[in-house]
Specification:
alpha/beta, Rossmann fold, six-stranded mixed beta sheet, 5 helices, 10 strands, about 30% helix, purine salvage
Length: about 200
């Protein structure tokens, strides 16, 4: 998606090898119009999928998933929580996810009330690096008996190959921008053609 690629080139900051800051428009401060355009693109890419629920993980994926949901008939957004809290009750689906960004392992949970075998799920997230977070979300969907209809990613780090592995496993994965390389010295980002 050229609009997203141009925004990354203009406002993204390469912090170090493998770390791209897009907090001014994607995952801290959110450019609602840009995310809405991304939602429309995901709706086009997954038009043939019978999506009735959007799944993401807290926190950065939530804003994106909410705007994407508007383009899928206002499908409910469920977000996997990284911590148990007193307002969560009932039975939970649970898995462990290693975060590339945070460099730690999180217990991730979703209430069984919000995922069931009747659900057709589109997984949405802001970044895809090695695929650990997505594998955890897929595990939660499979544990619930629901169907993964697709995976939509804003920015994929193609050089970390998580997306390649998921595609090889047969998942319909669409990334709006795929980075081939990032140079922390020059700040240059190179995108995969036809992303």
């Amino acid at each position: 998606m050229k609009l997203l690629e141009e925004r990354i080139k203009r406002d993204g900051v390469v912090k170090s090898e493998g770390v791209l800051k897009v907090d001014s428009f994607l995952n801290h401060q959110i450019d609602v119009n840009l995310i809405d355009e991304m939602g429309a693109e995901f709706a086009r890419l997954f038009a043939d999928a019978p999506v009735n629920k959007i799944l993401t993980i807290e926190a950065s994926g939530i804003g994106i998933a909410c705007l994407v949901a508007r383009h899928f008939g206002n499908a409910p957004v469920v977000f996997a929580k990284k911590a148990q809290s007193i307002n969560l009750d009932g039975e939970m689906y649970s898995t462990k996810i290693q975060s590339f960004t945070h460099g730690r392992i999180f217990d991730v949970i979703v209430s069984k009330k919000f995922l069931s075998p009747e659900d057709h799920v589109l997984i949405i997230d802001d970044f895809l690096a090695n695929g650990c977070a997505l594998n955890g979300l897929i595990e939660l969907v499979e544990e619930s008996g629901a169907t993964v209809e697709g995976i939509g990613i804003a920015v994929e780090k193609g050089f970390q190959h998580g997306g390649d592995k998921l595609r090889e496993e047969g998942y319909h994965l669409e990334s709006l921008a795929i980075l081939e390389s990032m140079d922390p010295n020059t700040g240059e980002v190179v995108f995969r053609e036809n992303a």
